[in-house]
Write a structure and sequence with these properties.
Blueprint (H helix, E strand, L loop, with lengths): L1 H25 L7 H24 L7 H29 L5 H8 L7 H11 L5 H11 L6 H17 L3 H21 L4 H22 L15 H14 L10 E3 L5 E3 L17
Helix pairs in contact: 2-3, 3-4, 4-6, 5-7, 6-8, 7-8, 8-9, 8-10, 9-10
């Protein structure tokens, strides 16, 4: 009995330890969330770029320096595109996640599709995070080589104007839409009667933007001493009213190199070349 008891205890211990070992081996590792995967990709992208930038700066002077620099730049572009593809794919697999907005914001016009825009409209038209993306539209415009994509972007902005609770975001979206109307007008104004009607409508939209969102900061506020959307829109409206192709050039007064004063209207009917330059 004594021997049997010891053997039994030994068997129990073996089973316990075996079980613990098996449990430890079979315990599943924690799966990264899509947000964590996104952050890791961004970190890895930055780290990869940092290493190549350091490598670029440390290339020694030699007859082959130019080719070495070009080689590093090519490697940088290749790596960056690889990360961009992974980030884009992750955003497409998880369009409802907030990081998808950041991903598309940093990759705007990088293989963006109408379906991507539809998902953004569906899940994020009311979010504050959308500001960074529509600010990209302000810089680059929403006109693309893909008419279907351009229409999707326009509809997306319209939904933001309608549904987003943030006044500044709605104002930026409205500004982008008016700028798109200006683009279409300049590309194809139509006949004189149509052009006059469309120009009046665009001016009306600019004025409505100024009235409703004029006190909101523009996307350039940090660079232009607190510029408002109203100030930005007024500049754009002035250019549309006075500087677009087909209109008379606004009057200017100046002095020529001999100190003789002149006005632009003095030369009406003649071909004039204006050369503006400065010396600092």
């Amino acid at each position: 009995m004594k021997i049997s008891f010891r053997v039994g205890n030994l068997l129990v211990l073996i089973i316990l330890f075996t079980g613990i070992g098996t449990y430890a081996e079979d315990k599943p590792t924690k799966k990264e969330t899509p947000e964590e995967q996104y952050k890791k990709l961004v970190r890895d992208q930055a780290e990869s770029g940092g290493k190549l930038f350091k490598k670029y700066r440390e290339v020694p002077d030699s007859p082959n320096k130019k080719s070495e620099l070009q080689k590093i730049l090519k490697e940088y572009n290749t790596k960056n595109n690889e990360f961009a593809e992974k980030i884009l794919q992750l955003a497409r697999e998880n369009p409802q996640e907030s990081f998808a907005v950041k991903a598309y914001g940093s990759l705007y016009n990088y293989n963006l599709t109408p379906k991507d825009v539809a998902n953004l409209q569906k899940y994020h038209r009311k979010s504050k995070e959308i500001k960074s993306l529509i600010s990209e539209f302000t810089f680059r415009g929403i006109n693309t080589k893909n008419p279907e994509l351009t229409l999707a972007l326009s509809a997306f902005l319209e939904s933001i104007v309608k549904d987003n609770p943030d006044k500044q975001i709605r104002g930026i979206a409205q500004f982008d839409l008016v700028k798109y109307e200006v683009f279409k007008f300049e590309k194809e104004p139509g006949n004189e009667s149509e052009a006059k009607k469309r120009a009046a409508e665009i001016e009306k939209r600019f004025n409505k933007l100024i009235e409703k969102y004029g006190d909101c900061p523009s996307i350039y506020a940090a660079l232009r001493k607190g510029e408002t959307l109203g100030e930005l829109a007024k500049r754009e409206l002035f250019e549309f009213q006075h500087l677009r192709v087909g209109l008379l050039a606004p009057e200017i007064q100046a002095e020529d190199i001999d100190g003789v004063k002149f006005k632009l209207s003095d030369y009406r009917g003649k071909v004039i070349l204006l050369d503006f330059w400065g010396d600092w």
